[in-house]
C-alpha cells in the first residue's frame, strides 16, 4: 500500500508532510505518495530533519488515492490532516485550503 | 484558598525561566528530542495529534475568579480561545506552540498556578470533593490535607521517579463526588468512636487496562501520622512496584499481586520505622496555618426559606428546570451549591471558551463568589451561593451558554478528548457523547430517566472513566474502524463498582442505538423509582443483553 511520511513541526507542533520537491508541507494534498521502499528510505532520511530541529516524531502511514485525492486508511490520519472532527473551525480545515 | 508565599512565587517563576532556557536550547539544536521530551513533560507539555498540549494543574480543583479569568485570557492570546476541563480537575490547552510556553508558565505563575507534575511518574494533581467546605455532613474540608500533601509531594526527591504516575484523592463526606476509589491512594476523613477525626486510607485503585477499586489499608490513621503513613505506602510501592512493564507498573498491580494483607504488613513495618524517627509528623501549628487558607467565607445568618427564590421558581419554568438538577443543598441555611454544566447538548463535554471563563469570572465578582471548583465530571461548581442570588446567577449564565439544566442526567456525559485530539486514542469519544446527548435532548425524557451517568473513553487508558459509568463506552480500533464496546453497572460514587462489558461492540451509529436500547430495557423493568443502576443491580446483565443482541 502507498505511504505518506508525516511528522509534527518542532516549534508549532503542527502536522507536516514530506514531499521531496517541496520539503515539509502543511497539507496532505501536497504530500508525496511513496511506494513502501521509497517511504522507508524517506523515513530514514527524516532523521536529519529531526536532528536539524525542523520536525519531531516522523512516521509513515498508509494511504489510497480516490480520484486523485489522497485518502488516509485510518481515521487518525484523516483527523490529523483536517483537525478535530468536532471543531471544524480550528485546525487545518479552518484555513479554507485544499486538504 | 491557599496563597503562594514568597518562596512559592520564586520557585515557580524560576521553574518557568529554567524551561525558557531548555526551550531555547532545544530550538538551537543543543538538546535532542530524546533529551528534551522528559523536560517538557515535567512542565505538563505533551505532543498530541495536532499540536502541543499544555496541562495546567488546578490543585484540588479550586480556582479563584482571577485565575479563571487569566486562564480565559491565556487561552485566547496563546491558544485557540478555549480549554478543556479534564476528569482530573485540570485544564488542557490543545494548541500550544513551543516558543510560547515559557511565557504562558510565567503568566500562570502571576496567578499562582503551574504545570508541575501534571505528567510523569510522580504524584499528580491531588483531587478532592468539589463540594468541599459546602456539603452538609462534611467532617472537615479535605483541601487542607490536599494542600499539605501537595507541598509534601511536589519535587519530593524520593518520589520523583516512581514506577508509574500516582494519583491521590481526598474526601470528607460519606457521599463520594470525587470517584475516590479509582485512585492510587484514596483518603476519606472519618471520625472514630472517641470523636477524633482522622483518615481512612485505601490503596491500589485505578482504571486503564486492569481496573481495580482501591482497598482499605489503614482503618484509622491519626492526623499527625498521615505523611508517615503515606510515605510508608509509597516507599513500599517505589521499591517493589514493577519497572519492567509499563502496563504492570501502577500500585494497583503490586497490591493485587502480593494481596492487601501482605501490602498492609509491609506498609505497617515501614510506617513503624518512620514513626520511630518522628521526623514526618505534621506539626499542629502548620495544620492550623494551612487550614486558615480554607476557612469558609463569612456566612450570613439566613432563613433557609427564601421567598424571592421560591417565587422565581414558580414564575420561571426554565429557571425551575435548571434549579431542579443544578442546585444542591448547602450546609448553611439560605445557601446552595450550584453546578454549572459544561455539557450543552451537542457540544464538547468539558470544553470552556475564553468568553465563558471570563464571563463566569465576572459573574463571580458581581455575586461575591471567591471560588469556583472543577469536578471530575467535567463541570464547574460555585460552592457558596446565597439562594437569594440564584436567579441573578442563572440570568448571567444563560447568555454564556452555561445554564444547561442537565446535571446528573443522561446528557451530562463524561468524555475524554479521544481521537479528535489525543495521540493515544483509538477512537473518537466526543462525537459519541454529542450524538447521545442529541438523542436524549428532550428534558422531560431526561427527568423521566433520572440519574444516569454515561462515561466514554477513546482508548483503554480510560481517561473518560468508562469502567465506572452506569453506562460505560469504550472506543477501540477494530481493523482500522472505530468500534464501541458497552459496559453496564459501574459507579464512581460511594456505591463504587466496576462495570462489565455486555457483548460485542458497535459502530458509531450503532452505539447510540445500543445506548437507547439498554435505556429502553431499564424503563421497562424499573420499579418504584429505581435509578438505572439500581435496576441493573437488581436484574443483572441478562435482560439487557437479551434485548440488545436479539436477532
SSE arrangement of chain A, N to C: EEEHEEH
- Which stretches of chain B of 5+ consecutive residues score pLDDT under 50? none
What count of domains describes the coordinates of chain B?
4
Q: What's the CATH C level of the largest domain in chain B?
A: Alpha Beta
CATH architecture identity of the largest domain in chain B: 2-Layer Sandwich
Largest interface here, residues on each chain?
A-B, 26 and 32 residues
Radius of gyration of chain B: 23 Å
Quick check: average pLDDT of chain A? 95
Q: What is the CATH T-level topology of the largest domain in chain B?
A: Sulfite Reductase Hemoprotein, domain 1
- Largest beta sheet: strand ordering of chain B: 1-2-5-4-13
Structural account:
The complex is a heterodimer of chains A (99) and B (551). Chain A has 99 residues and is α+β, with helices and mostly antiparallel strands. Chain A has one domain. Chain A is built from two helices and five strands. In chain A, a hairpin with a 3-residue loop joins strand 2 and strand 3. Chain B has 551 residues and is an alpha+beta fold. Chain B folds into four domains: 6-110, Alpha-Beta Complex (Sulfite Reductase Hemoprotein, domain 2); 135-293, 2-Layer Sandwich (Sulfite Reductase Hemoprotein, domain 1), CATH 3.30.413.10; 316-400, Sulfite Reductase Hemoprotein, domain 2 (Alpha-Beta Complex), CATH 3.90.480; 414-548, 2-Layer Sandwich (Sulfite Reductase Hemoprotein, domain 1), CATH 3.30.413.10. Chain B contains 18 helices and 20 strands. In chain B, the strands form four sheets. Chain B has a five-stranded antiparallel beta sheet. In chain B, helix 5 (143-153) links the parallel strand 6 and strand 7. The radius of gyration of chain B is 23 Å and the shape is globular. The A-B interface holds A 8, 10-15, 50-53, 56-57, 73-76, 79-80, 83-87, 90-91 and B 26-29, 32-33, 47-52, 80, 95-99, 348, 419-421, 425, 427-428, 430-431, 434, 477, 480-482.
Would you kindly provide a brief summary of this structure?
Chain A has 99 residues and is of the alpha+beta class. Chain A is 24% helix and 31% strand. The longest helix of chain A is centred in the middle third of the chain and has 16 residues.
